[in-house]
Specification:
By secondary structure, the protein is mainly α. It has one domain. It is about 45% helix and about 5% strand. It is globular.
Length: about 325
């Protein structure tokens, strides 16, 4: 069990943790088909308003579920951070920017997986029933979106590693709370060289690539098809809604069956409403960041239009 320090004395806002990382604005395109937006907690409340779990009920269920696994103090901190999350930079990204970032990782010398492989998630970090995730996917998603907004540009994977190395308590005090064999000191070390963290490096690299892919799809639908696409971290990590496309809650699946058993059905929250399951093909590659084909994304755009034209569910 990791020994946690007491961080209750910290009063500075979460954004201040990123002050050690330089902020550099990326180049912005002068024109975007969909107008720039901002999404806040009010967007979440509006999306959930017509469900069987409007926000007050959804929030209570969210907190109750997290308290089964984590200390109440850390759950409260997590909820506060998510509720105060404002997405701005996400809506300013262009396809050109995202493609340029993805292309960087074609160079095997700098790709996000380093020299780690899936086998580094070895039996010594497995639970009795299933492979330990070292850190739940929502931890990676939260940090990646926080970095995007704080740095005001699409960050590199090295920015992710730099942040978690300089602020190890962020992962350790909540996301790795009940995982054995990890200490705060471990996070300061080279992840590739520390046997305890090679599995984490591998998963974090895959999560970063997944983040880039979803940003790519998000931007493609806005720029190429003129769709209004919304996102908020709460809907993503707690309602399994990867994005809201033309007002329709959408879940993204990679491959027909790979994630269907472990990913919560989006209709568990949005039952009775129009929803979309976007199933896209996985490419078998190692190292670089593969992306969805334009044919697939255009096909999904057709699916959006067809669903939008259907009558509402009552």
């Amino acid at each position: 069990m990791i020994k946690l320090p007491d961080f209750s004395h910290r009063s500075r806002p979460f954004n201040d943790l990123f002050s050690s990382i330089s902020r550099t604005r990326g180049q912005r395109a002068e024109h975007q088909t969909s107008p720039p937006q901002v999404t806040t907690l009010e967007f979440v409340k509006a999306v959930l308003a017509q469900t069987t779990l409007p926000y007050p009920i959804f929030r209570e269920a969210w907190i109750k579920r997290r308290k089964r696994s984590y200390p109440a103090q850390e759950v409260a901190r997590h909820v506060d951070q998510c509720e105060s999350f404002v997405h701005k930079t996400l809506y300013k990204l262009t396809l050109k920017e995202v493609r340029a970032q993805i292309k960087k990782y074609d160079d095997e010398r700098i790709h996000a997986l380093g020299n780690t492989k899936g086998k580094d998630c070895r039996p010594s970090i497995r639970t009795g029933r299933k492979e330990m995730n070292l850190s739940p996917p929502f931890a990676f998603a939260f940090i990646n979106h926080r970095l995007l907004e704080d740095m005001e540009r699409l960050h590199d994977f090295k920015d992710f590693v730099r942040f978690t190395s300089r602020n190890p308590e962020y992962l350790a005090t909540f996301y790795c709370y009940h995982y054995p064999d990890l200490t705060l000191a471990d996070f300061h070390e080279n992840w590739d060289e520390n046997p305890k963290l090679r599995g984490l490096r591998f998963r974090a690299g895959l999560a970063y690539y997944s983040f880039l892919r979803e940003i790519y799809l998000f931007t493609y639908l806005r720029e190429r098809h003129g769709f209004h696409v919304g996102f908020h971290i709460i809907l993503d990590i707690e309602a399994k809604c990867d994005m809201v496309v033309e007002g329709i809650p959408t879940a993204i699946y990679i491959g027909e069956n790979r994630f269907l058993e472990r990913k919560t059905d989006i209709t568990d929250v949005f039952g009775g409403q129009k929803t979309l399951n976007c199933v896209l093909n996985e490419q078998k590659t190692y190292g670089g960041c593969w992306v969805f084909s334009e044919m697939e994304m255009d096909g999904f755009a057709d699916q959006v239009r067809a669903t939008k034209s259907q009558p509402n569910i009552h």
